[in-house]
Write a structure and sequence with these properties.
This protein is an alpha/beta fold. The chain has 16 helices and eight strands.
Length: 344
């Protein structure tokens, strides 16, 4: 018998491991952030920003479906509600090489609600089920659903179980549950990430009532010890803003969640490893800030962190040699982190 403090064992399921994942975040988890995050953790499952089915079908398909091979394991998050469009996009995701397709049923934005995307779909479980079934018929990838524990007007536990049950009957076995309800009127998306209280016990109960399902908990997770404790109750954790603002948190993920004790790259080594990617981006006509805006929190809590952020967010824009400034910044940060030894 395992001691009470031992996390649940890793269960083998189709597709990537979801024991630890970084949440899809609009404007944040783009390809540049994901490449950077992969330098820190080999195993964390990464997600794209939400991409609407219309953007893929009618827009620049390569822009939304192209990714660097080093980003894997990588999941595509879709926003949509029309079964035929979801099916088309799931098939394209498989062709592009994604490891998973996830359906967004959690975003509370007014803009997506108007297109029947996101959290408002919790009021339409059959519509979600039809979309999930169509995606499963169109590809062989795992299809997962990310949702809230409820929305205003439909926030009882019975309604949550009805939602999960209907989607499971359609073939979905993995549910990523943001442990807050969404208030669809009167709160902004930002306020919906903070104001409705976290209710972790609701997610834990969901796992007890649906033990056959893979339940991943999301919402307000910032401490690795707390995340490990969550594995007593659920199958995995999904971390959002903390993984972005304090990215070196990911350096402990491989060891703590996957049993991989290989030494992670230190912060200076990460900057060196990122440099060829920056050079290639610049050679292709890209702007350096497209990448460096994602690494501002790399030295959070360490000497020189404020200088690092200031140089990348302001001095870089006025520099005629941004790559040279980047190299100088590496040297500066290395010097600040090197212990000074006093003579005996």
């Amino acid at each position: 018998m395992q001691p009470p403090s031992a996390p649940k064992p890793i269960i083998s399921r189709p597709g990537p491991s979801r024991r630890f994942s970084v949440a899809p975040m609009m404007d944040w988890t783009d390809a540049h952030y994901r490449y950077f995050a992969r330098l820190i953790s080999r195993h964390a499952l990464l997600y794209t920003e939400m991409v609407t089915t219309g953007a893929i079908i009618h827009g620049d398909r390569n822009r939304f479906l192209h990714f660097h091979p080093d980003e894997q394991p990588l999941a595509l998050q879709l926003g949509g509600s029309k079964a035929d469009e979801l099916a088309t996009c799931a098939a394209l995701a498989e062709q592009a090489g994604f490891a998973e397709v996830n359906l967004n049923v959690g975003c509370p934005s007014d803009r997506v609600q108007n297109n029947l995307i996101g959290a408002c779909l919790m009021a339409h479980p059959q519509l979600v089920a039809d979309g999930v079934r169509a995606m499963l018929d169109a590809c062989s990838l795992p299809i997962t659903v990310k949702h809230r524990i409820g929305i205003n007007g439909r926030d009882s536990y019975a309604e949550l179980c009805d939602f999960v049950g209907k989607i499971h009957e359609a073939g979905c076995d993995t549910f990523i549950v943001h442990a807050r309800i969404a208030i669809l009127e009167g709160l902004s998306p930002k306020e919906n990430r903070d104001i409705p209280p976290l209710q972790y016990p609701v997610v834990h109960q969901l796992k007890r009532d649906f033990p056959q399902l893979e339940i991943i908990i999301n919402g307000g997770l910032t401490d690795l010890t707390v995340m490990q404790e969550q594995l007593q109750h659920v199958d995995g954790v999904m971390v959002g803003r903390e993984a972005y603002h304090n990215p070196y948190l990911l350096a402990q993920v491989d060891s703590l969640f996957y049993g991989d004790d290989r030494e992670p790259l230190d912060r200076i080594a990460i900057l060196h490893a990122l440099r060829p990617y920056i050079v290639a981006h610049l050679a292709g006509g890209g702007v350096m800030n497209h990448i460096t805006r994602h690494i501002l929190g790399l030295f959070q809590g360490l000497p020189g962190a404020r200088h690092f952020r200031r140089q990348l967010s302001s001095a870089l824009h006025g520099s005629s040699d941004p790559l040279g400034l980047y190299d100088e910044l590496i040297e500066t940060m290395q010097a600040r982190l090197t212990p000074r030894h006093c003579p005996a």
